[in-house]
TrEMBL record, chains A, B:
Family of the protein in this entry: Belongs to the AB hydrolase superfamily. MetX family.
Subcellular localization: Cytoplasm
Domain named AB hydrolase-1: residues: 46-356
Organism of origin: Aurantiacibacter aquimixticola
Record's catalysed reaction(s): L-homoserine + acetyl-CoA = O-acetyl-L-homoserine + CoA
Name of the protein in question: Homoserine O-acetyltransferase
Amino acid sequence: MARAQTADFRSIALPDPLPLDSGRELADVQIAYETYGELNERRDNAIMVFHALTGDQFVASTHPMTGKPGWWERMVGPGKPVDTDRFHVICANVLGSCMGSTGPGSANAGGDRYAMNFPVITIRDMVRAQMRLLDALGIETLHAVVGGSMGGMQALSCAANFPERTQRVLAIATTARHSAQNIAFHEVGRQAIMADPDWRGGDYYGGEAPTKGLSVARMAAHITYLSEAGLTEKFGRRLQAKDGKPGAKSFGFDADFQVESYLRHQGIAFTDRFDANSYLYITRAMDYFDLAEEHGGRLADAFADASDTRFCLVSFDTDWLYTTADMREVVHALNAVAAPVSFVELSAPYGHDSFLLDVPALDRVVRGFIQ
Amino acid sequence: MARAQTADFRSIALPDPLPLDSGRELADVQIAYETYGELNERRDNAIMVFHALTGDQFVASTHPMTGKPGWWERMVGPGKPVDTDRFHVICANVLGSCMGSTGPGSANAGGDRYAMNFPVITIRDMVRAQMRLLDALGIETLHAVVGGSMGGMQALSCAANFPERTQRVLAIATTARHSAQNIAFHEVGRQAIMADPDWRGGDYYGGEAPTKGLSVARMAAHITYLSEAGLTEKFGRRLQAKDGKPGAKSFGFDADFQVESYLRHQGIAFTDRFDANSYLYITRAMDYFDLAEEHGGRLADAFADASDTRFCLVSFDTDWLYTTADMREVVHALNAVAAPVSFVELSAPYGHDSFLLDVPALDRVVRGFIQ
């Protein structure tokens, strides 16, 4: 069964239709969100955390469907680098996703699921929706916006398009522009979903979901989140133990290698918590992301009004999805507008996923910048 | 329709059953092959070219199904680096493939297609079959074996297992061991094929072939054949022109970006010429490839009997599939047995595919080593 769009997430209905980069507008937008820590009386201690492609609003609390801890509990919480004893942390499910915010799995005005009639959205549309959420919450200016990967794209987009809304921008393991290779990997995933006959042009709600296609898409993407060295260290060519016996080649097509079994599990587990159409829309938004193009072709112009914003940019040496070179382009653009920026490339073995994992140096960078 | 296994390829039936690494043996093996240039009277001027995963025996002559030039015409032919005016070049379709050599699409003794009853094979099995072909052709010793990518694996396997059969080994853009990341990408492809309902457990011959799954598999693999910089140079974020109009975002799921269109084309065109089950079996053989493991765990031991063989190894600086570091491991192993080896890392922008493309430095290396 396609997973149900449950209505029991905390959310706010935006009062006005949301204008979109496509020229369309979206009415009756719900934005689901979670908050952690108290908003102070001056309403100036709020930090917005933007989540990545398959993330959600449960940054520091248990995911209601998987029962797993929040996806960034190591970073966000009482006494943590993003300290909820001091800050009011807001994390919203992005527009287009499937954890309570309006997306292709939501009902349109006529009561039917949008499916592929949902408008194609952009990273800027996601940020626009979240600024509307801030309006609804009565928060004018953020202490900081923080995000890794697609969350970092939103952080940069926020700085470019809503520079007056935040004092600090912390963007981790991200890029100002999706590259041809980035687009190519996403296209493989989309084609895998669309090749699944259960996808049925997107109209699968209430029936079988295209779980096989979505699983293959997740597997392909997952490889890009890990470094070659990390995969070798974690799995190498080790074989799966079977029925209590040590691993041996099956000379068949079972998952002989641990890395195969791991990837299959990653793919299948993902389909329990994510909607395939949301995957299509959000990857499309990421592929469309090119902050320079949005601002006349020159990246520095994107940050023309952000010269009073403080920036902190972090890359990881083993991240081959969004590389240090990608990040340096952002640094150069910020330098060109004389925005205060600190940039660090951290060494960590986990590839792109380093921003989510145990990298104490990242904790220190985040704590130092946020305070 | 699943493509027919046509019988009009030039081939030889091996007289005896072929023993396989799995412990099984395969009877009635056909090996399809092409030759170029004359075999001399001493029968000592033969060079065997091994092809890559999706290659075939048509190294220097027109592919009979696609009508395209041979896949290495720039390297093999009269006056070319592998000079057919001087050498007798043999190129055989590998065991398990689908261009006339016995594979999962072939009929078994009962007249049915093997499909998934075909035994799982290894790179060494492929080489073993080709050594049997040499026996049938009355050629004892080769002037050289040459191959790139999986062809290079066969060349190294030949050196390790049949060192008396060749005087020279030229291995390009290859590795002695499939890494966890290599396996992971192949596993994505296999899962994409197996997720296609037209795959039907491999029994699709005579019906619809799993072209959608095979196409996704090819797309995922194809990304690994190209460098990030090469993709950026070739496509960047350029948009497809449509109906004579310059490219614009469709805000839809058409192939907006040129790289999407290119990949889709690569995927679909591949399904016209390749059998999905062969793709499963050959990728499995590559994943099983670990020359050290085959020889007690120490790579140098694989080459213990090859110390009189001359080796030339070539890697490309932008190849992230089989890297220079992978090749260095082979060099170190050959050094340990005091085999004569020359090694060069060439600079070329095309990633793994560089071995097939216009890299004049490679031509010079090949010509110099072969003569």
